[in-house]
Specification:
The chain is α/β, with parallel strands linked by helices and 195 residues long. Helices cover 54% and strands 12% of the residues. It has a single domain, classed as Rossmann fold. Strands 2-1-3-4-5 form a five-stranded parallel β-sheet, with helices on both faces. Helix 3 packs parallel to helix 8 and helix 5 runs parallel beside helix 6. It is globular.
Length: 195
């Protein structure tokens, strides 16, 4: 059992190492896009399904509350948390519209839409990102697997090239924490005193 635990941890480390050894433009572009949006008084909308929904909620909380610094709150919203909105849109329209409809309701040009999909093919994430682009948002895709459709439609693509969802999600949360920390460090270089 202990050797199996070590093997799984090594696999997780190897996925992150592989990402580290690749191009990081998607991460740097995402940090800059979020910094620019926050400096202009815009907001960040995050969404995904299952574990990626939990990641969207987790990262939104890090921006609104704090990650590493005591500082003013930053405007981030997870579109995965309101069960009444999610179920009414899924029931009255289609499950594929649950994020696109919220993007239309809550977003505005200059906002950042960050979709998370371990396959890159989640229809509602793809639809939400397409809607965001049509409305003048900056779009970010955080994917795994082969990257799928999400990788072809976003302004900033962050891809963890691995087929196993759990290993991809472990890398996703590490990458997301790094993005949040770099945004904090850029906007609040002297602690929480201001951007």
């Amino acid at each position: 059992m202990e050797e199996r635990i070590r093997a799984l941890l090594r696999q997780s480390i190897q996925v992150k190492q592989s990402f580290l050894d690749g191009p990081l433009q998607g991460v740097t572009g995402t940090v800059q896009a979020i910094v620019d949006a926050f400096r202009r008084g815009r907001k960040l909308l995050l969404f995904g399904n299952g574990g990626s929904a939990a990641d969207a909620q987790h990262i939104a909380a890090e921006f609104v509350n704090r990650l590493m610094k005591s500082r003013p709150p930053l405007p981030a919203v997870a579109l995965t948390t309101d069960s009444s909105i999610l179920t009414s849109v899924a029931n009255d329209d289609a499950f594929g519209e649950i994020f696109a409809r919220q993007v239309r309701a809550l977003g505005a040009p200059g906002d950042v839409a960050w979709g998370i999909s371990t396959s890159g093919e989640s229809p509602n994430v793809v639809r939400g990102l397409k809607e965001a682009r049509s409305l003048g948002f900056v779009t970010v895709g955080l994917t795994g697997g082969g990257g799928g459709t999400v990788g072809t439609i976003v302004d900033h693509w962050i891809h963890v090239d691995h087929p196993l969802g759990p290993r991809v999600q472990e890398a996703h949360i590490a990458i997301s924490h790094i993005i949040c920390q770099l945004v904090e460090e850029t906007l609040f270089p002297d602690g929480g005193q201001g951007a």
